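Hi V.,

Quick status before I head out on leave. The structure for the redesign project is tokenized and pasted below; the design run finished overnight.
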């Protein structure tokens, strides 16, 4: 396993890229628990997949929506997680969906009356490739910005960066 660091613009934590040598297998903010968990035995190395991902990130952080996706591979996917990630990949730049929206889409696809929003939240939070698979674009039904393993400050910064209407979104007060 290999790693590469990416220095983000002000307002965002830096990012750690993980690869198996050919595919991107992880993209995490350095302050996240995921980054700390997945980088213990990784070798720092310059790889084509890292250069491709850095190009994608440079375009994204310049305020544009990249017109390509670096090749990635995710292991350990259940059918449910794959369904959730497929839906995440349809959320347009600058838009959001709620956990409930995703639950309804999956319930309809599976012919069910309903689907657990909490289960959807777990699958969204499991996403190992943040930003590129846009889990930051999922919000609570009331506009609550919860459930981002990359850190709530990064979720707010990403949504603001994409010109979302932040007046309809809020960070809940901790109880």
């Amino acid at each position: 396993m290999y790693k590469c660091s990416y220095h983000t613009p002000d307002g965002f934590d830096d990012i750690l890229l993980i690869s198996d040598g050919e595919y991107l297998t992880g993209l995490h903010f350095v302050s996240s628990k995921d980054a700390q968990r997945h980088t213990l035995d990784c070798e720092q190395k310059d790889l084509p997949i890292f250069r491709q991902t850095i190009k994608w990130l440079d375009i994204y952080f310049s305020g544009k929506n990249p017109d390509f996706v670096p090749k990635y591979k995710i292991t350990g996917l259940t059918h449910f997680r794959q369904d959730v990630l497929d839906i995440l990949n349809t959320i347009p730049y600058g838009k959001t969906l709620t956990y409930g929206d995703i639950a309804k889409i999956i319930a309809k696809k599976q012919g069910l009356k309903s689907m657990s929003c909490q289960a959807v939240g777990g699958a969204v939070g499991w996403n190992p490739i943040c930003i590129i698979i846009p889990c930051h674009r999922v919000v609570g039904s009331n506009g609550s910005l919860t459930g981002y393993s990359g850190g709530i400050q990064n979720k707010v910064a990403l949504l603001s960066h994409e010109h979302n209407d932040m007046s309809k979104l809020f960070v809940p007060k901790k109880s």
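Above is the designed sequence. The two ends are 40 Å apart (CA to CA).

G. will cover questions while I'm gone.

Best,
W.
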